[in-house]
Amino acid sequence: MAQSIIHKASTRGEANHGWLKSAHTFSFANYYNPERIQFGALRVLNDDQVDGGMGFGEHPHDNMEIISIALEGSLQHEDSMGNVTVIEPGEIQVMSAGTGIYHKEFNKDADKPVKFLQIWVFPNKRNVQPRYDQQRFDLDSHKNELVQILSPNEGDAGVWVYQNAWFHLGKFDRDTEVNHALHLQGNGLYAFVLNGDVVIDGQELGTRDGFGIWDTDSINIKASAGSELLLMEIPMEV
To answer: What kind and span of H or E run contains 119?
Structure first.
């Protein structure tokens, strides 16, 4: 029988550093909740807003798959591998930190905020050579569908990671209903509502609500008008 957990938007950890406003679904930095450490291999889900011209100074990472999904504005990225890039809405970025990298991220625009999701996934292979990738996806051309933006397979749709994880994004019109099958038995699914209202297997969810479900092979999604949804299929054992 399927098991599930709901994380309402209002229960997330909040951080306000003036130039940075962030909501943490799971424990991060100064926010610690022993019941909200991770969901399987999904360790961090931060909903970040950075003021114009501001950003994160150079800092290290290792042995983590770090994914950024742009929601609004332009996020500039620079790293110790020599990458200098900008991600904008409709793009996903991934870094396999592996043996160790340094990077910095900042708002490319001086006069408007940048909004993005910062997601960390535990890898299934440690101490790999660090790598970077960035790809564009088109939700508007695939309305009322789930678009794959991440997988474990190089050459498959979207970016790839060192983990048996699949991410999908979708924009849905009113009263759209979609069934979605998980790729791998034993995985769980964490849904994060970017906009609008959806019902997943009978659970009503609003904007920025999170919903984890496991011990199931598939889910049913019913969406209202203007709904946008991120689905993250994740191994439950790390």
So the answer is: strand 114-121
Length of the chain: 238
CA-based nearest residue to 235, from 186, 167, 192, 182? 186
Give 183's DSSP letter. Answer: S
Q: Give the CATH number of domain 140-235; options: 3.40.50.720, 3.30.70.1670, 2.60.120.10, 2.40.50.140.
A: 2.60.120.10
- Label residue 84 exposed, middle or buried (CB < 10 Å: 0-12, 13-18, 19+): exposed
Quick check: 191 pLDDT over 80?
Answer: yes
Q: How far apart are CA 141 and CA 27, in angstroms?
A: 36
Strands lying side by side in the sheet with 55-61: 55-61, 101-107, 75-79, 84-87
The three-class DSSP label of residue 184 is: coil
CA 205 to chain CA mean position, Å: 17
For the chain, the average pLDDT equals 97
Mean pLDDT of 65-82: 97
CB 104 within 8 A of CB 56: yes
Burial of residue 238 (number of CB atoms within 10 Å: 0-12, 13-18, 19+): middle
Under 8 Å CB-to-CB from 155, ≥6 apart: which residues? none
Q: Within a 10 A sphere around the Cβ of 210, how many other Cβ atoms?
A: 25
Nearest Cα to 28, choosing from 118, 129, 156?
118
**What does CATH list as the number for 13-136?**
2.60.120.10
pLDDT of amino acid 225: 77
